[in-house]
Amino acid sequence: MPMTVLNIEELLKKEHVFKQLSVAELVEHAIRNNEGVLAENGALSVETGKFTGRSPKDKFIVRDQSCETHIDWGHVNQPMESDKFEQLLQKVLRYMNEADQLYYTEAAAGADTHFTLPVRVVTEYAWHNLFAKQLFLREYPTVAAFEPFTVVYAPHFKADPLVDGTNSETFIAMSFEHRIVLIGGTEYAGEIKKSIFSVMNYLLPQQDVLSMHCSANVGHEGDVALFFGLSGTGKTTLSADDSRQLIGDDEHGWSHDGVFNIEGGCYAKTVNLSREKEPQIFDAIRFGTVLENVVLDDTRTPDYDDTSLTENTRAAYPITAIDNIAIPSRAGHPKTIVFLTADAYGVLPPISKLTKEQAMYHFLSGYTSKLAGTERGVTEPEATFSTCFGSPFLPLIPEKYATMLGELIDRHGVTVYLVNTGWTGGAYGTGSRIKLAYTRTMVNAAVNGLLADIPTEEHPVFGLHMPIEVPGVPSDLLNPVKVWADPAVYTEQATALAHKFKQNFTRFVSATDAIKSAGPRV
C-alpha cells in the first residue's frame, strides 16, 4: 500500500535500493536491466529517448523564504510554489517506493574542501547513478561547507501540469529549503549535472566565491588560464593542451585561494570526435564511461560522425581518465582569461585584448552564433547571447557574477582576451572558418604572455584592442577588415552585429555607465 507520507530517509531503508555500487556493478546492473549495451571500446552506450538535451522550459526553483529575495526570477528561474513542490515530492517518492529497484550513491561537488557540497543521488536507472558517480567527486565529506543536496531522478514519472504546477509532464525542480532536486519525465542525464551546478551558482557567491561556466588549465610555472565559451566555440578543445595540466573542463569556483574544479569528471561532446583532433577525449572513453546517444555500428564501434539520434552526443567519464591533469583539481589565481566566441558573421577579430570594463561587458553579453541547420527554423546565422556564458544555470542576477569577476580581475592583475573561433573574410557561407592551428597559436601566445608587449590597434566599431602581430599567424588575419573583399560591406556587417549587442545589453539596467560604454560604438 502506498504510504500517506514518505521521506527520502525512509525510502533509502527499503530493500530494493542498491547503495554505493561500484562502477563495474552499476555497468552490470544497467546491462541486466536493458538500459544500455557495451560498446567495442568498453563504454556503456545508452539512448535518452525523446530528450537528447536539457529542457530549460521545465526547470523550476521553489519560491520560499530561504531564497525568495535572492533569486533572479524570470523565464530562466521559473518559480514553483512550496505546496506544489511538496505535493510533487510525495508523488515522486511514492512512485520510487514502488519501483523494482533504485540506486543510491554519495558524492560531492567542489574540490576545495572549504566549499564542498555533499551530493546524494537516488535514481531509477543504474546508468543514471553511474553518470553521477563519474561526473561528481567520489569523496563524500563528513564535514563540509554546505548541507547535503539530494537529487531524486524518476525518468518515467510524468507530472500533471494542471495539478502539479509544471509546464509539461517533464520537470526539474529544486528546493533550497528542502535541499532536494526532483527530476522526472526525461532520461537526459545532463539534468543531474546542471542542476547541481545551478545549486553551486547560488551557494558559492554567498561565500564570496565566483562560480564559473568555464574550463581551466595550469602551466608548469603555476600560471592558470580560464576558458569561457558556449557550445561549439572550442572551450574543451582549446583547454586540452599537452603542455598544461587540465584542472577541469566545464565548472569552476574562484575563491580567495585560487581556482578549483566543481566536478570530478567530464561531460564531453563527441560529435565528429577523432583521436587525431582530440586525443585526450578519444582515449578517455573506456570501460566505465557513459556514451549518450552515440550510434554504434554492427561491431558496436562508436560512429561519432553519425548524428542521426542527435548532434548533442556525449561521453561522461572521470577526469582521472585523462593523463595530464592537476591533482587535486585546484590551482592558484588565473593569469589569463580567454572568452571564446564563434562569430558566424565574420566580424570580430581572431584575438583582441580587453580592458576590465570590456571584459565585464562581454562577460555579461556571452555572445556566439547559432548556425543554420543546427536547430529547426534556423536558416541563417543568428546571434546568441547567454549571460556570463551560462545563463540557464544562474540563479542570481547576472550583474552579481560580473561584478565579482571585475573585482577579481583587478585584484589579481588578470589579462583578458576575446578570441573568435568562427569565420573570417566574410560571413558563414562566404568566408572561411579560422584555422584551428592559428587559433591554438594565438591562444598559446596569450596564455604564455607573448602578447603583453605587442602593440595593438583599436577596432573602429567594437573598440577592441587587436594585436598587430602574433608569431606564426598571418598579420592580415588579425584585423578582419583586411581579409574582406569589400571594406564597406564589412563595416555594414560589423555595425549590424554591434546593434544586436546594444539591443541585448539594454536588459542590464544595473550595469555601471563604465561597463555600458565599453560596448560597441553605434
From TrEMBL:
Cofactor: Mn(2+)
Subcellular location: Cytoplasm
Annotated binding of substrate, by residue: 54, 188, 194, 314
Any coiled-coil regions, as ranges: none
Comment on bound cofactor: Binds 1 Mn(2+) ion per subunit.
Pathway: Carbohydrate biosynthesis; gluconeogenesis
UniProt cross-references to Pfam families, sorted A to Z: PEPCK_ATP
Residues annotated to bind ATP: 194, 213, 229-237, 278, 314, 433-434, 439
Catalytically driven reaction(s): oxaloacetate + ATP = phosphoenolpyruvate + ADP + CO2
UniProt entry keywords in alphabetical sequence: ATP-binding, Cytoplasm, Decarboxylase, Gluconeogenesis, Lyase, Manganese, Metal-binding, Nucleotide-binding
Domain of life: Bacteria
Enzyme class: lyase
EC number: 4.1.1.49
CDD domains: PEPCK_ATP
Predominant location category: cytoplasm
Residues involved in Mn(2+) binding: 194, 213, 250
Alphabetical list of InterPro entries matching this protein: PEP_carboxykinase_ATP, PEP_carboxykinase_C, PEP_carboxykinase_N
Family according to the record: Belongs to the phosphoenolpyruvate carboxykinase (ATP) family.
Protein name in the entry: Phosphoenolpyruvate carboxykinase (ATP)
The organism of origin for this protein: Exiguobacterium undae
